[in-house]
Amino acid sequence: MLEIKNLHVKLQEEDKIILRGVDLSIKAGEVHAIMGPNGSGKSTLSYVLAGRDGYEVTDGSATLEGAELLEMEPEERAAAGLFLAFQYPVEIPGVGNMTFLRTAVNAQRKARGEEELSAGDFLKVVRAKAKTLKIDADMLKRPVNVGFSGGEKKRNEILQMAMLEPKMCILDETDSGLDVDAMKLVAEGVNALRDAGRSFLVITHYQRLLDHIKPDVVHIMAAGRIIRTGGPELALEVEHNGYADLLAEVK
Amino acid sequence: MALAQAKADALAARIAGLSLPQGGWLGAARADALARLSTMGLPGKRDEYWRYTDPSSLNQPEAPHAALFDAGDEAPIFDAIARLKIVFTDGVFDAGASDPLTLAGVEIIRLADAGATDIHWAREIYGVLEARGQTPVQRPFAALNTAFATDGVLVRVTGRAALPISLIYNHASESSDAMLHHCIKVEAGAELTVLENGPGAARLTKVLEVDLAEGATFHHIRAQGRDHQRRACTHVFARLARNALFKSFTLTANGRLTRNDAVIELLGDDAAAHVAGAAVGDGDFHHDDTVFITHAGQRCESRQVFKKVLMNGAVGVFQGKILVKQGAQKTDGYQISQSLLLDGDSQFLAKPELEIYADDVKCSHGSTSGAIDDVALFYLQSRGVPKRAAQSLLVLAFLAEAIAEVADEAIAEDIRSRLEGWLARHEH
User: The pTM is what?
Assistant: First the structure.
């Protein structure tokens, strides 16, 4: 599904190298987790994949089902099936959440040559999906993320994911700022979307989230590289011992 | 006194070719206005409220040439709204294109026919509200208009008007110079909506005087016409009695020069006045909103919401003042003026002012200038919305607070769709 090879990235505006040769291969249906200390480049990796400005790829490649992602505009990546759930979902005053969702769904359908959803059909689908995420009608009417609590913002991200039905989902610290119940709700939302044709890359600081979203593979990232790859037990090891041992091992 | 002489000379040149209709109450009102004007002269660049907008093309005797705009097969704005149409072409009433001037609960008289009969209610408005609005800030073009206006309507509403009155201003001659003057009296508890659209002429000078009696409601929605080279200098003078509600929204797209003055006096207690504007300009576009709201009554509310989207060197100006008089306790005044600059060449000049002589009031004002939010843009793109569409969505979101001042949802939707069309036609 997603193939990242020798990815090197620096900040555009300054000479700061963030990623120093990331290799990652995620097969269809797999759930991978990336853990790592602050500043290791986890969020940068997600932004670079989604196409945010401000980064310069100096080497390497990233492909989604064989198509070169790094050449595409962010909206083309989305239409190709990539989705990033933001660590800090953006507030957009003046744009209703429902308008936003419908514009996004129909833009992607149009880009893929599919027919746009009618207002009625869209409403039916969005209401059903919102209900399972405990998102009420009021949240759908309000401007995107404006005045939402931390938990509401994250649930709103998962609702967008559910509506857009991407193939490759990247969750950037979706557990940050969530209480236990909210995290469970979000995890259930994610688990409901798991299937053989859809892959996940879950970026997190804490093993806790991985109790709810069970990964197939766990990677440890440090200083812009993936330094260890293993099974779910690797996350438990980090939870108990911290990163110090792993970092020392690499040095 | 060299400046005063220059102003007097400019005025003499400006009015040399105009005729001052004589006779009757209207003739007297016109003569009074000319006397007012003679003490002011025409504005100059050094006048405080003309520092950001060059009045020379409004001062010159001949209207500058303005090419006509071809809207293709696009339906005119408000086309789908049921309304009573009153059409002026280059400032002249067009009976053939207008509906019969009859509407239940409403009295409509052409200004050109009004001089001969004594219309007592109009006597108390024509030039009267304009004259009140000359202090403390002089508005010479309004006095010029009162003196020399060639056409317009006098409207008196005694009930709830069954339909909005729609004033349509066609521009047919590339050198037309139009001067329209309307007076509106909404009697106690009565209600009226006035729609205005179109450029009106190569150069349009317009005055709208609105007198709201106790509990009267007045909605005003206008779209100023898309002719790129047109010039307009408009004034709204409104006086509100107790419990009256005044709401005015203006959409401006294109136009080389637009100066919109709104002078509003909240005289009675518990009255509310909202003035809002959404302006979009690309290139040779200069748009000036100058607002003066006086709170004299108690517990009155006023809102000023002005948003401008500017690109390719377009210039936006906002001069907004809230004056709270002594005794106008519990005033609630709000003023916001914002610009969205789509490139580095455009300019927004804002002068918000508060002058408060009462001690128990709430007044807020804010003015900002900014670019499209890159993070929001990326967020939309990351969800699959193409960049241009995402930008348009954010521009409309920026304008939303102003459009929200339009109470009628069908009209608001019409305005939104015009803006969407404009954004689609202008690369940004």
Answer: 0.91
